[in-house]
Amino acid sequence: MFERYKGGESALLVHVFFPQESDIEDLKEFEVLVSSAQIEILDIVTTSRKSPQAKYFIGEGKALEIADKVKELNASVILVNHTLTPTQERNLEQLCECRVVDRTGLILDIFAQRARTHEGKLQVELAQLQYLSTRLVRGWTHLERQKGGIGLRGPGETQLETDRRLIRHRIQLILSRLAKVEKQRNQNRQSRQKADLSTVSLVGYTNAGKSTLFNALTNADVYAADQLFATLDPTLRRIIVDDVGEVVLADTVGFIRHLPHDLVAAFKATLLETQEASLLLHVVDAADPNLLDNIQAVDEVLLEIDAHDIPTLLVMNKIDLMEGKQPSIDRDENGVPIRVWISAQNSLGLDLLFTALKERLAGKIQVCQLNLPIHLAKLRSRLYKLNAVEHEVINDDGSFLLNIRMPLIEWNRLCKQEPDLLYLINTQNNN
Question: Which one of 63, 150, 226, 370 has the minimum C-beta count within 10 Å?
Fold first, then answer.
């Protein structure tokens, strides 16, 4: 049994072109993934096959070539841009005497680097343990069942069985903790629903500019960088939209092609913000030549988490990288906004995005005239804070005649919170 390398700073990349997946963009994206993990790329080995080989995935001849390359370049890890079975990983490691990590393992490593909150770290650890539980056999094939006899009797388990039992226990512990987090999120979500607050969730391919847009809309300081999976932990802020009122905006984890199902399941608590949204802002890197495939990849994940039926507004971001493209709104045959062209980095077209949000979220509008007595001056002040006063006349007796225009949702909420307002409306209607 060779000693497994613990490093991972210099890597040999392996990619197989299949007839149904001959797009070179997938390999370029893998290179960006590797760079995001802060790993040096020594060389890239490519090959073509009709189907994966059972033993090495890539074929025995190419596997021997990779083994020679590893020794020649002194690579510390082999990164394969595909999902390998545990047996294929073990066979490659034994042949090359070098650690082998597939695409899923690399994404998990990036997630482990990016997670900042307690919930994010739990979700990443859960995904890692679920991934590791099927791959323990690689490291423990040299340990046999413990022997019997005086002084040698043990639990009767191999080290592999012991590790699997400990991992199952740890997974159950993490699931129980995440259940508490999910319960808390549900309580917060129910509070927002009781307050009639609309939720808008940012979704999109990783590195499309969601966090940059989130910061531009909310004046927040969420971590944003030109790298894949810069955001793992959901962040919520409130924004004001004309004729709608307060809206909760949620920044979520980015999606990617071939996102492992276990990874989606691990981030269930985070993705619930997407499932419960009133509107999805699907942020797209408009300057990416592969944008149509990226949109399809996001749609597939939305289908997997049962969020495909939620109304969606496409936000075509990064138009500053497109020659001659100006901010604009695309509408359907009924005049409803379906696409907005903006640049979050340069704050271009954000006013158009707010306009589109208003049209997509605004419900009925309450328009009325109120005659407020002077002792209800605090209520007048609150109406001004809500931007609900269109015109005001001060009467001779000091009372205020106000022309009110505000979203019906905000109006109903205000009536619940201000009994004096409800009494005043009933009195004026009776008169």
Answer: 150
Residue 175 belongs to some domain of the structure: no
Q: Are residues 86 and 65 in the same domain?
A: yes
**78-93 pLDDT per residue, tens:** 999 888 888 888 899 8
DSSP secondary structure string for all residues of 134-152:
TSTHHHHTT--PPP-STTT
Annotated binding site for Mg(2+): 211, 231
138 vs 1: CA distance, rounded Å:
10
As annotated, the binding site includes 204-211, 229-233, 251-254, 317-320, 343-345
pLDDT score for 380: 87
Domain that holds residue 318: 197-361
Domain count of the chain?
3
The SS3 call for residue 100 is strand
Same domain? 201 vs 284 = yes
User: Are both 342 and 401 inside the same structural domain?
Assistant: no
The residues, any chain, with a CB within 8 Å of residue 367's CB and separated by 6 or more, are 404, 405
Q: Residue 302: CB partners within 8 Å, gap ≥ 6?
A: 203, 274, 280, 308, 310
Tens of pLDDT, residues 44-64: 988 888 888 888 888 889 999
Residue 375 domain-assigned?
yes
DSSP designation for 205: B
State the CATH number of the domain containing residue 67: 3.40.50.11060
- For 277, the token pair is 């949204």
Rounded to whole angstroms, what are the CA distances from 406 to 30, 354, 383?
Answer: 49, 16, 9
End residue of a domain, out of 42, 73, 101? 101
- Report, as an integer, the average pLDDT of 351-376: 84
Q: Give CA–CA dist 158/153, Å, rounded.
A: 12
Which residue ranges are tagged as binding site for GTP? 204-211, 229-233, 251-254, 317-320, 343-345
The whole-angstrom separation of Cα 265 and Cα 305 is 9
User: In terms of C-beta distances under 8 Å and separation of at least 24 residues, what long-range contacts does 213-222 make, across chains too?
Assistant: 213/281, 213/283, 213/315, 213/317, 213/342, 213/344, 214/249, 214/251, 215/344, 216/344, 216/347, 216/350, 217/249, 217/350, 217/353, 218/249, 222/251
Average pLDDT over residues 388-401: 86
Instruction: Count other C-beta atoms under 10 Å from residue 145's C-beta.
Output: 12
**Is residue 222 scored above 60 in pLDDT?**
no
Does residue 272 sit in the same domain as residue 378? no
